[in-house]
C-alpha cells in the first residue's frame, strides 16, 4: 500500500550515517532520464556514485546501482534482510518502498560512494527519499497531472508536493519548459523556503548544444537540467563537454524510446519500439516520436498496450492511436515488491481504442498472455512499425521475457 510520510523511514535510518552527498530529482516526466544522464556524467569523470530509481525494470535490485551497474542480488538481499529485521524489531510497519529506500541508503553508505543520484518515488514532500540529509542540489523535471489521488487535483497542488524536496540554501534546478502556473508556484515556494532556483532550457547548456542533433526535444530539456545540476555540484568538471558528450551518447535508459528486437520471442526481424509512456505528457512525447520516425502516410502502427488499474487512458490513447492502427491489449503480471499494483482489464483498454475509431477487426484481447499479444502484433504488423507502450510494468514483462530466451 501507499502511505506517504517520513516518520517510519526516519526511524529506519535513525542510526545510519549519510556521509555521501545527494542529488535529489522529482517531477512527473523525465526524472529517470535526468538520473541516468547525471550518473553517466559522474562516472565519466571518475566520481564514485550510486543511483536509486523506481520502479525496478526486471529484478527488484536493479533499481539500485553502484558504479557501472546494478548491485548483486546477494548484496541487495543482505541489506534488505537487515532493514526488514530492524523494521520488525521496532514495530515500525514500514511500507515496501520505505524498506527499499532504506536498503538503498544502507548500500550506498557501505559502498562509501561520494554522491547518490536519488529519484523521488511519489510526489516529493512526503516521499521516503526526502529523508536525505546531505542534499547538494535538487532537480524538478517536467510536471503534469499524475497520481492526483495522492498529490492533489491541480498542477499547482502537485507542484507544491514536488517542490517539497527543496532545502534552504540548496540550489534547485527546474525544467524551464514547465507551464507558467508550475513555474510561478515554484518561484513562490522557493522564496518562502529560501531556495535559490535555476530555470533551465537547451539553450543554456553548452553540452546540449554540442549533441542536440542526436537528441529528441524532450531529451535536450532533460539533459539541460542534468548538466546544470552536475555543474552546481562539480563546477570544475562541467565544461569538459567532450568527455561528457561521449558519456551521454552511450547512455541507454531502458523503456524510454528503446529500440529492441523480439525475434527470439516471435521471429520478427525488424526492431520494435518499447516505451513506458503512462501519462499524457509522456504519451505526447511518444506520439511525436512515432509520427516523426515510424508513420509514413496512412501506414498503420501496431500497438501492444497495457495500463495500471485506475489509470485514465483516455488522453493517452487519443494521442497515440489513429483509426487505421492495430492494437492488442494485455495485462501485465504481478509486480515484485508492489502487490498493490494491478493491471487494467483488457476489455477496458480495447473499448477506449474502439472509441478512437480503431476497427474491431484490428483489435486483439490477449488477456494476461504477453506472448500471445506479441505474436499477434508480429503477424498483424507484418514487419511494419510495432510499439509496446502504456506501462513500465509491461516494459518489465517484455525485458524479463527477452532475458529468459538468453539464459
TrEMBL record:
Catalysed reactions, semicolon-separated: 7,8-dihydropteroate + L-glutamate + ATP = 7,8-dihydrofolate + ADP + phosphate + H(+)
InterPro entries: Folylpolyglutamate_synth (IPR001645), Folylpolyglutamate_synth_CS (IPR018109), Mur-like_cat_sf (IPR036565), Mur_ligase_C_dom_sf (IPR036615)
Protein EC: 6.3.2.12
GO biological process, one term: one-carbon metabolic process
Pathway of action: Cofactor biosynthesis; tetrahydrofolylpolyglutamate biosynthesis
Record flagged with keyword Ligase: yes
Keyword annotations from UniProtKB, A to Z: ATP-binding, Ligase, Magnesium, Metal-binding, Nucleotide-binding, One-carbon metabolism
Molecular function (Gene Ontology), one example: tetrahydrofolylpolyglutamate synthase activity
Signal peptide coordinates: none
Gene Ontology annotations for the cellular component aspect, listed alphabetically: cytosol; mitochondrion
NCBIfam families per the UniProt record, alphabetical: folC
Family statement: Belongs to the folylpolyglutamate synthase family.
Protein name: Dihydrofolate synthetase
Protein's organism: Diatrype stigma
Annotated gene: FOL3
